[in-house]
Amino acid sequence: MNCKFIIIFGLILCLAFMDATRLHAEQRLDDEVIDIIFLNLPDGEATLIKTESGDNILVNTGAKLSYKELLIQLKELMVTEIDQLIVTSSDEEYAANIEEIRKKFHVKKFLLPDGFLLDDNNLNIQYWKDVDQYTLSKRVTIKNIDENANGDATFVLQYGEETVLFLNDKNIAFEEKLYPNLKQIDIVKIAAFGSGNSPSQRLLQQLDPYIGIIFHSPEYNINEDLVERLFASWIDAYFLKQTGSIYIRLSVNDYELLS
């Protein structure tokens, strides 16, 4: 009996999330907001950005075993075309489904790690090494902070006064490049599935983020010291494997956590 109850309860939660996701997507009528959805996948990273002009931008594609789940969530979010695909690393957990996504969602514009090639010469491809400031829409920009020796790109998304840091270097030594460029950050996506040492206490004090996002990969072990540091800094840390996908809506001067 208890086992059946747990299964039924789990199904109810899953259906509730699907309904809520669909409702948010359907009700998004305000052209003064953008939506950022950090997608919970079995392995890897993928983030959907819906701009104020209605474009769909996907950041990373997850690992191979996550492809079906990625398609399910994109369908729930009523995504039929992807206008731009941004990839921050050539590693499996970030880039394994590029070709499948490109073909299925008719992607024509890409921002990729240096040396990453696609089998279509008619595509609009830019590389992180050639980009400082990159425009996603009329009011949404990203600033390239750094591409490390492994080709992992760290960037800041800016919409009005709201900022999201996509941190993709897990080493504290890298943080020296952040201090001159960044002040307060609202949301930080933690690098390397929470397995590294960054962000340090010093960086957290400078950035003072409200929300931390940690994707899941079975290939990485979470650094417990990092977790303690996040909670000690009064950051709302969301581990997507436990919480499910996180849906955040940004206006030009505020954010709202929708799920």
UniProtKB/TrEMBL annotation:
Keywords: Hydrolase, Signal. It comes from Gracilibacillus oryzae. Residues 1-25 form the signal peptide. One of its GO terms (molecular function) is hydrolase activity. It comes from the Bacteria. The keyword Cytoplasm does not apply. This is Hydrolase.
